[in-house]
Design brief:
This is Plasmid segregation centromere-binding protein ParG. One of its GO terms (biological process) is regulation of DNA-templated transcription. It holds the Pfam family RHH_1. By secondary structure, this protein is mainly alpha-helical. The chain has a domain of 36 residues: Orthogonal Bundle (Arc Repressor Mutant), CATH 1.10.1220. 45% of the residues lie in helices and 8% in strands. The chain contains three helices and two strands. Strands 1-2 form a two-stranded antiparallel sheet. Strand 1 and strand 2 form a beta hairpin. The chain is elongated, with a radius of gyration of 23 Å.
């Protein structure tokens, strides 16, 4: 017979705070990768081809070029 630890009952507070509607904070979409947030982006194939060509000319990855474009747009204003 295996020896097991006794199961501790959960406190009422931890049970209530674990409810899906208990948290006030907004849910964040996507997956966290280190310090960045992964997102899904839909883009026209023609535009994606231009992005890939430009990234290759600059010696950057597609993701790096898209990040740079977003950064410049946000910081510089549209």
């Amino acid at each position: 017979m295996a020896i097991t630890k006794p199961v501790r009952p959960k406190s009422a507070e931890s049970f209530i705070s674990g409810a899906p509607d208990a948290s006030v904070a907004a849910q964040v979409k996507g997956v966290r990768r280190g310090t960045k947030q992964q997102i899904t982006l839909t883009i026209a194939p023609e535009l994606l081809a231009k992005v890939d060509e430009m990234a290759e000319r600059m010696g950057q990855s597609r993701a790096a070029l898209i990040n740079l474009a977003i950064y410049r747009t946000v910081e510089g204003g549209v």
